[in-house]
Amino acid sequence: MKTMAKKAAVIGFDCAIPKRLQALVAEGALPNFKKFIEDGSYMTEGYNLPTVTPPSWATICTGAYPRTHGVEDYYYYLEGESLEHKKTCQAFGSEILTAETIWDAWDKRGRKCIVVNYPMSWPSKMRNGVMVMGEGLSPAETRWQQLGNGHKEYLASESVISSDFYPMGVQARFDDAKGWANLPAGAEEPLEAVIPMTFKESMEPLKGQTWYALTWEGGDDGYDRFALCPERDFSKAFFTIGAGQWSDVVTHDFTIAADGRTEKGTFRCKLMELSDDAESFRLYITGISGFSGFTAPAEAADKLAISDQVICNDMGLVAFIHGVIDMDTVVELAQFHSDWLTAAATSTLKANPDWDLFYMHTHLVDWFYHGWLSDMDSEDAVRRERALDMERRIYQIEDRLLGNLLKALGDDALVCLCSDHGATPMGPIFNTAEALKAAGLCHYEPKASENYWEIYEESEGYNYILDVTKSKAVPQRYMFVYVNQEGKYPGGIVKPEDYEEVRDAIIDALLDYKHPQTGKRPVLLAVRKEDAKVFGMGGAQAGDVVYALKPEYMAEHGYGLPTGVSGCGELKNVLIFKGPNVKRNFRYERPRWLADIVPTLCYMTGNPIPADAEGGPIYQIMENPDLNGTKD
């Protein structure tokens, strides 16, 4: 009997937490996830290390562990740079991978692979496949070689126009409207604001534009109508809305500063606030979504059904943190983001019916947990219930995406549904440099940043300026400490003959340190780099010492072992298979690693295994695990 699948797919939900997913399924909130679980095999003990985005997705697409595929953290150390954490960049894209991906291995055999918004995929190396740019967390953005949490987008990031100052927007005030054409009929005492628009975080910098806001009284209750226009002509307004309302999708021309060419982009706006006297107002503007430059081959962009969609990178999390938008608006932006991804994925699948492999990643759940996971454990009942309700709404958006994708993939596909890691609520922050400074191993001073993309530094324990010229040990990224060797690193002061002595002192300092808030040890383990190879790390991108924290000291994820559990969270990943030859409604309760996904897909479809894959097929989930000779 033929039991091999003809096609395979991976649908990745970044940071989906197994026990939270199961709780929402149990209450009936997620019908598509529920059916997927019932129709397939659920691995209850899914593991990967480190528990953070880039290395996990690199493992999911190569079948290799971080020591082999070359990505061992969210951040990447660039050889020759100072060891300071602020000199590291975000670790996204295919250029840094040192292991072959599944789609490149299949592509060499003439298979057609579709890859959509997969963090480690861009630029594409395929000859036969189709790729929608994945070099960050969101489609059509790059984070590779961006410092901190910076990013670049096609065409630009979110903004705000407001009477108050926000670091991500334009401040403006209303005054009497002058020189306007075609003012709205019956408008009493219309006011205008001149908006010198600048467009930030652009992959290719855009020329600024001058826009005009117009407000007037539509009734007897003060100023309540708002229009945004590209010139002083109301008949050409992008939209007219009232407070609390979204505009429709706007399509507009933008000019690339470098060469003067014009690119069309889409955006939407929501009027968050407009006072009766128009003295106070706030207009949120989504990122501007382009139509080209982020597909391979380039002509694949013509098949994307995204003309009425907006990407909404990060679903407005940064705007929320800065007080620009509220939680309901974040959920609305999450739906817009999901709509764009669904449209891009399903239209690409439709345009390529002969596809063999499909990989896609969506990041909504991770963004939500970074903003509200700790609130889910709050002692404040109102705060807690509000966060739990928002979690449900975000997962329901992902549930609808899953249903649409499964329809597009068809019943004959072998499908893996997974997350890259889980998360735990924010605990007492562990400042690695503080533990090292107490042992006389490093020197630093606190800092306060005005860069609005560095809002995560405090939660990650890196809100300081470290002096490498006075430091024998330098903490870097999530799990590493380096011996600051003379002649090897800029500012290095440790002589080669003192290397092992300093490394031992680092390990002792980490393990001996007691957190000032709890009086207990936050560090679970600290080992030499070479010893970390036993759990998949310790490659070229690892520091001289690798350490992990207890889960209750986590800044959500990235620092701890995948077995960690704290509060409402856990660090394990979701791992479920369904399709031809997969046992139905089966629970596999032994540990499996993300490295097993690629070998399982290859074995169950009879396709080539990537050259560097280290995991193994999950035979126990198969109805017929002996597939030798079963495919024509």
What does this structure look like?
The strands form 10 sheets. The chain has a 9-stranded mixed sheet with strand order 22-6-5-23-1-24-33-2-34, sandwiched between helices. Strands 12-13-14-15-16 form a 5-stranded antiparallel sheet, with no helix packed on it. Strands 11-10-20-19 form a 4-stranded mixed sheet, with no helix packed on it. The chain is globular and about 80 Å long. The protein starts with 6 loop residues before the first strand and ends in a 27-residue tail after the last helix. With 632 residues, the chain is of the alpha+beta class. α7 runs parallel beside α9 and α8 runs antiparallel to α9 (381-409). The mean pLDDT is 95. The relative contact order is 0.19. The longest helix has 29 residues, at 381-409. It contains 12 helices and 34 strands. β14 (209-217) and β15 (225-229) form a beta hairpin.
The helix content, as a percent range, equals 10-25%
Average pLDDT, to the nearest integer? 95
| Integer-rounded radius of gyration | 26 Å
The helix-and-strand class reads alpha+beta
Distance between the termini: 11 Å
Q: What's the total count of β strands?
A: 34
Number of helices: 12
Major beta sheet, strand line-up: 22-6-5-23-1-24-33-2-34
Inertia-based shape: globular
β-strand amount: 15-25%
Low-confidence stretches: none
Let me know the largest β-sheet: 9 strands, mixed
